[in-house]
Predict the structure.
Amino acid sequence: MTKSELVDKLAEKNGSLTRKESETIVNLIFDSMGDALRCGEKVEIRGFGSFTVRERGAREARNPKSGEIVDIPAKKVPFFKTGKELRERVDAA
Amino acid sequence: MTKADIVEKIYEKVGFSKKDSAELVELVFDIIKGTLETGDKIKIAGFGNFVVKDKADRRGRNPQTGEEITITARKILTFKPSQVLKASLNAE
């Protein structure tokens, strides 16, 4: 299911919502979660899971083609931990 | 940030009542959960993909007792963040 299919489904399930409004809602949800993560904030959705930002230290790696050693700088990566309810539902199916 | 903060954003920016906003946020996550439950993936452009993966049986060890156990096959949910999200976390 893509974002646009999610927008369709939301509009379908809530009859009083136009497709445009449905799109605004879905975009707002993911944009605000992204904004929180960009601020380094944790996002916790009960029954779904939580998103945190993890720091990856700088490291040296090798270009597999040339064998050359390259420096990879420290960076931040988003991390998702599935919530208990969803973890159990996904496995039960 | 929790669901309540997202509800507040919708209330502020779209002007829906807090009750309606809360119902819509709940509905969006219900649709996502129901879809993942069937094994289908969720692809949110600019945010990331949620994919259910099959994990085979594997051998593990109880770290407390040292006892060997079999970790049974299971389905797990993985999140692969989009390049856009990853890049935006490191932009300054």
Observations:
- The CA atoms of residues 5 and 11 of chain B lie 10 Å apart.
- Chain B has two domains: 1-39, 41-92.
